[in-house]
Input
Amino acid sequence: MSVHSEIKKITTETLRKMKFDKEKITMLTAYDFTTAKMVDAGGVDSILIGDSAANVMAGFETTLPITLDQMIYHTQCVVRGVERALVVADLPFGTYQSNPEKALESAVRMMKEGGAHSIKIEGGAEIEESIRKIVNAGIPVMGHLGLTPQSIYKFGTYKVRAKEDAEAEKLMSDAKLLEELGCFALVLEKIPADLAKKVSESISIPTIGIGAGPDCDGQVLVYHDMVGMNQGFSPKFLRRYLDLYTEITGAVSHYVKDVKSADFPNKSESY
Output
């Protein structure tokens, strides 16, 4: 029996309580049923269906091409595999920035069709009305500040954000605004650790860091990076817990060798 089997479902309220109790929050991505089942069984508090599916599942260079329909499909797959973790789904680029009505429509579809427990969107004051409308409809919203990959063409780089005072001040005021608007948590991506600490201490909602130092209330990594399925991606913030790329390619080579040599299937593997 899993040590987590007696633990109730994690909710947005659970995460708030964890911050209050100074218990760190864990989050990983998943994009399919099988992975979600394993990640959930491993005991993470929250599973993110990130628009990073565009990169790791579809092979795109940025997160921009993935559609709402595709994100809903990935979310449906994940939800079927989860018993305990809080499921957060990204609204992809172009589904909430242009107007609040469209944002609400996208969020409603993600909840109704996708089965998500909550949604995540990138940005601060510039998407204030969209957040307000979604939260007012009773949909939990996780914010995302710092490096916001959907704005990559505006930034022109994936480097650390908010190193300059003006950008750091805007990030701090955006974080407070997201809290006021009713967001239940906030992702801080690739910002200086001391700024992340300051933000985390100045708001009452949990902060989840990725490349934002140890003082956030929780941490998130992309599952494929964490288990070493991606070889080419090695940012400073990534800790690899496995080297699955080597393990899997080795297993495939072994299988190929066994079939070619007529070693597989053998007598005991035949009917």
